[in-house]
Amino acid sequence: MSIISKQIKLLIKTIARIQILFLSTLLFVSTSFSQIESQLYLEGAQINDIKREGDFLWIATYGQGIYQYSLKDGKWTNYSSKSGNLENDLFHCVAANKDFVWAGANEGLYIYSRRTNKWTKRKFAQGGEFGNWIRSLNYDEKRGRLWIGRFRNITVLDVKTNKFTDYNKVVNGDEKTNNFNNIVFEGDSVVWFGAESGMHKYVTKKSIDDPTAWTFINNKGRNFNGEGNSVSVTDFVFEKNNIWFGTDEFVTKESPEYNVGGIYVWDRKLKWDRISKASGLGGNGIYCLARTGDYIWAGVYEFKKNDKEEYGKGLYLINRRTKKVTPIDLNELNITTSNILSLFFDGTNLWIGTSSGLVKLKIGNPLAKIKK
Fold it and tell me: N- to C-terminal Cα distance for the chain?
């Protein structure tokens, strides 16, 4: 690589970091809203999941069905009972490829054929009473696999053959190790599964049926510093030398240490750092995480012991290097709720899913797109 090429790359990285720093300054000091480029969409909708497929975003809502948004022309398409093209409106997750859209609901997997423009529903025999509750979806384009995280079991769909295969991942008799919260890809080599008790790691170069391809990690021993009776993993963010884990908070008077929550940063060796309410977060429950440049964004909640309910505590920005936590002024972003349920960075814009709408926040211009 030439010296000039290296200098250009260094310049682009520097510009990206300056823009992120400038944005964070705007968010945290008293400035006029006009300085921040944000826009509210789908006002009133609960946004549970956001995925990208080509030039489209797919959004799963709980109450207004599924939305498709064109990044090219800004066109919205809605699939819902109101639109008359889908019988269900309550969805937890979504995924898509060029031929199909998959949406997870309480009662099964909804499948949209882009060839026939029709939705069908698939139910699952295994998993008992809650086996059809689909909580997470992620599509592996390279291998043509749809990963389906259910309340009980993982299911893999081979899209080409339309074959569904169920996997029971219970570890040591703990059923919560088989209750799945989220499925996230680390590049194309590893699939991570957040469960209500611990997490599973699958190395994709090996067969799914090969036991050596799988690793289970919980909060025993050094992991998660051994804190809490159990750990429920909600989200992942990956760096070269670290992995960030969002976790649930669930504590009661009877079990004050059950799920202590917080964000854990693992150096992929022995060190586990915890970022929590004591560090400046508004609560210890983490709904979602996203990375833009040198910063991690976190949707935070607090679980109250007395009424055993979750309360949204807003959006926080964390410096990856210093671990400094800074609360975001939601009013500056035109966000009217403290329930931040989903986050997605498309390379230029951060999409913020809340309990009452979707906000697009511009992070940088095309020259300074930040690597995910």
Answer: 23
Q: Which long-range contacts (CB under 8 A, 24 or more apart) does 69-72 make?
A: 69/41, 71/346
- Cβ atoms of 59 and 52 within 8 Å: the answer is no
Residues 83-124: pLDDT tens digits?
Answer: 999 999 999 999 999 999 999 999 999 999 999 999 999 999
Confidence of residue 35 (pLDDT cuts 50, 70, 90): low
Long-range contacts of 6-12 (CB under 8 A, 24+ apart): 12/367, 12/368
Cα 291 to Cα 71: distance, rounded to the nearest angstrom: 20
Q: What's the gap between Cα 29 and its chain centre?
A: 28
Residue 125, amino acid: A
Kindly report, residue by residue over 306-348, the tens digit of the pLDDT. 899 999 999 999 999 999 999 999 999 989 999 999 999 999 9
CA atoms within 13 A on the CB side of 214: 15
Q: Are 327 and 314 in contact (CB under 8 A)?
A: yes
The pLDDT tens digits for 189-204 are: 999 999 999 999 999 9
Task: Name the token pair of 286.
Answer: 């983490």
Distance CA 311, CA 164 (A): 37
In contact, 366 and 49? CB cutoff 8 Å: no
Exposed / middle / buried, residue 156 (Cβ in 10 Å: 0-12, 13-18, 19+): middle
Alpha carbons within 13 angstroms on the beta-carbon side of residue 310 total: 18
Asked whether the beta carbons of 184 and 195 are under 8 A apart, the reply is no
Distance CA 15, CA 368 (A): 6
Report which residue type is found at 165.
Answer: T
Q: Are 175 and 147 in contact (CB under 8 A)?
A: no
Closest of 187, 205, 176, 184 to residue 137, by C-alpha: 184
Dihedral angle at the C-alpha atoms of 331, 336, 337, 341, nearest 10 degrees?
-90
